[in-house]
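[Meeting: bench + compute handoff]

Bench side (C.D.) handed over the final construct sequence. Compute side (W.E.) agreed to return the predicted structure before the next meeting so the bench team could plan truncations. Sequence as handed over:
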Amino acid sequence: MKYIFAVFFILFSLQVANAQETTPRVEVFSGYSYSRATTPIGGTGTITPSTNSGSIITGSRADYNGFTISFTENMNSKIGLTQEFGGLYRSGQGSIYPYLFGPRFNLYHSAKFTPFVETLVGGAKGNGNSELLGASFPVKTDNSFALELGGGMDYKLNDKISMRLIQADYFQTHFLGNTQNNLKLSVGFILPFGKK
């Protein structure tokens, strides 16, 4: 019971400190993203019959590198609405372009740190390539439902810029009727605009 009381006391103390912080009206994030993803379309893996012409190759895991850009409109110091899009690329394997929207919850604001969690839903476009005799050629393009569940930690450098120390997301897609369960990590910078 004393541990529960201690947790509530700490959270209350953080809320009192938070009352003196200002929240930006809009935050714009831009940064690098890495994903260990199941190759949605193309690459090396299992040859699967396609409902369209020919065959497709799916199922292998690969390292994807790219970018993420997001816009968060803060309703108050705790809740914001986030729009996120980006691109993840793998040479010879293809690309994934997620576009997502959903709520972001700031767990608390301190003078420097803001941990958050978010649930984003939307879609993703997958472009697949396959390699044959050293040449990469397009195989198929598909659009899919996409889901991101995760969170991260922002660090305020000064009033004009913050740094996203880490954002870690469970990133799910459904290319070609199959579910891909992926990990996505992002780091970068945040520009705040306006005050709430």
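W.E. noted at the follow-up: Confidence is low (pLDDT under 50) at residues 15-20, 43-57. C.D. will use this when planning the next construct.
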